[in-house]
Amino acid sequence: MAMSDVERAVVRLLQGVATGDTVIRRDAWRRLVDAGPEAVPHVRAKLDSVAWGERPKGPSYLYLGVLLSLLHELDVPAFRAEIGRLRASRLRDRHRQVVDFMAKMGDAAPVLRLSDGTPVFVAEDIEDRERIAGNIARWSRTPGVELGDVSRIDVIGWSGEMDCVGLYRICESAIVLTWPTGRAWGLVRWWRRIEAEHTFYHEVGHHVCGHVEGGQAPELEREADDFAR
């Protein structure tokens, strides 16, 4: 049976991930977002795979991340149901880390919108959500910061098993920052703000510099750090 346009777009999306081709990824992503509810069962079918219980092969953990990101964009209740199903299944550690990271994505309305309309979401388990969103709004007004077509900024709770404090998600042109969930005071609070501000500029740097590898290469990390400084 011939594949539908939506099924082909899912395949193309994963091909783009496998080959590191950002153009293919973005085109397929936009096609699937445009398809809306029609795409949801096809994305869930790809997520219903025994691969997540096996040793990660090649970019399998990236496949899992991009499929969950897409499902979150398409249908939040379906995303939550899929997170629950995956957590109840047998997962390899690397795949479980991806699921746990994605599970922190918020569902509520944005805490605020920046002057250009970019929504800022802060997870509900983080203290001082309004203050943190306000910090981001102030940082976004720094001379030289060009958010351009950044679609959203998410702040999620940081936990000890995470191996990153920030992320630029290429397909969505979205920025993810992490923040400890507990309230802090004094020097600890000051240091958290400084670290988060640098991370924000770093991830904006990946966006402004047009990086197509998500900043995974050392030279791209250096370029994003130069922008942040």
Explain what this protein looks like in three dimensions.
With 229 residues, the protein is of the alpha/beta class. It is 53% helix and 10% strand. The chain is built from 9 helices and 5 strands, in the order H-H-H-H-H-H-E-E-H-E-E-E-H-H. It has helices spanning 5-19, 22-35, 40-47, 60-74, 76-87, 93-103, 129-140, 186-208, 218-228, and strands spanning 112-113, 119-122, 152-157, 166-169, 174-179. A 5-stranded mixed beta sheet has the order 1-2-3-5-4, with helices on one face. Strand 2 (119-122), helix 7 and strand 3 form a beta-alpha-beta unit. Helix 3 packs antiparallel against helix 4 (60-74), helix 5 (76-87) packs antiparallel against helix 6 and helix 8 packs across helix 9. The longest helix has 23 residues, at 186-208. The chain is globular and about 60 Å long.
